[in-house]
Amino acid sequence: MAPIERITLFKIPNEADRDRVLEQYKVLAKTAVKDGKPYITSAAVGVSFPDVRNKGYNISVKTTFASMEDMKFYDEECEAHKDLKKIAGPVKEDVLTTFYESIL
Question: What is residue 50's three-state secondary structure?
Answer without folding.
Answer: coil
